[in-house]
């Protein structure tokens, strides 16, 4: 198996893309920590599914927007597991609205979870990875961060921020055996996109060259590749997994 003896933390892994990534990493032998903030029940379901498939996993509640809580979570993982090899910053939220109607609170909450949440986890995980002289950091950006998306100035800014965070961190830690990359998904069928009206889904589909939404597993396989030995010489990159949207 590709990730035998590796320890991975996936944020926001109780459902959707994070859950698919957690399952893919566990299927290759990694011990996977399923981070969640809201639903303990859905996190427990993810843990159960991974265990039933023969994987090793546990769930930890932590709000990634909280710097100190992220330190406690990551320190606890290192204390219990002895190491941390893979960090996947997946937790994210949307609070969509047009610029002229967007509240300060909606801007701040999206930045706090999506961008600062990734910084918080990278900041604490990198210390251990530098000690180990190895590590993989993968953050989930979005085509909205690459292209910009009307109605999502907060979300697009947070996801573009992830790209800058990824590239700057990659430069800082490249000589320490740590790779840092981002994945920019297009439209993926999850709870996040389920809230879109049928009319919006139809008009969005028209803008996708492949004329269909992607699946969480499409993102999970890319994350698995970036976490694997095969991707050892790839760092500072943004891989669009989007049916051709952002070309
Ligand atoms: P989702 O809403 O199903 O999952 C997001 C997860 O993050 C949830 O389990 C949620 O509880 C968790 N989360 C939210 N705030 C958190 C916090 N403060 N601390 C810890 N966990 C928190 O959404 P989906 O679609 O699975 O999205 C996963 C990631 O992929 C997000 O970063 C999203 O922005 C990104 N993405 C999704 C796309 C899509 O079309 N579904 C497209 C591009 C990017």
Helices and strands, with pairings:
Elements: E1 7-10, H1 16-27, E2 31-36, H2 40-52, E3 56-61, H3 67-81, E4 86-89, H4 104-132, E5 135-140, H5 143-147, H6 153-173, E6 178-185, H7 191-194, H8 198-206, H9 216-227, E7 238-241
Parallel strand pairs: 1-2, 1-4, 2-3, 4-5, 5-6, 6-7
Helix pairs in contact: 1-9, 3-4, 4-6
Bound molecules: 1,4-dihydronicotinamide adenine dinucleotide (NAI).
Question: Overview of this structure, please?
Answer:
With 247 residues, the protein is of the alpha/beta class. The chain has helices spanning 16-27, 40-52, 67-81, 104-132, 143-147, 153-173, 191-194, 198-206, 216-227, and strands spanning 7-10, 31-36, 56-61, 86-89, 135-140, 178-185, 238-241. It contains nine helices and seven strands. Helix 1 (16-27) packs across helix 9 (216-227) and helix 4 (104-132) runs parallel beside helix 6. The two termini are 34 Å apart. 1,4-dihydronicotinamide adenine dinucleotide is lined by residues 11-12, 14-18, 35-38, 63-65, 90-93, 113, 117, 140, 142, 185, 187-188, 190-193.
Concise summary:
The chain is an alpha/beta fold and 247 residues long.
Overall morphology: globular
Biggest sheet record = 7 strands, parallel
Q: How far is the first residue's CA from the last residue's CA?
A: 34 Å
Which value, in Å, is the CA radius of gyration? 17 Å
Bound molecules: 1,4-dihydronicotinamide adenine dinucleotide
Strand segment count: 7
What proportion of the residues is helical, as a percent range?
Answer: 40-55%
Tell me, rounded to a whole number, the average pLDDT: 98
Strand content: 15-25%
SSE order in H/E notation? Answer: EHEHEHEHEHHEHHHE
Task: Tell me the strand order in the biggest sheet.
Answer: 3-2-1-4-5-6-7
Helix count equals 9
Structural class: alpha/beta
Weakly predicted, low-confidence segments: none
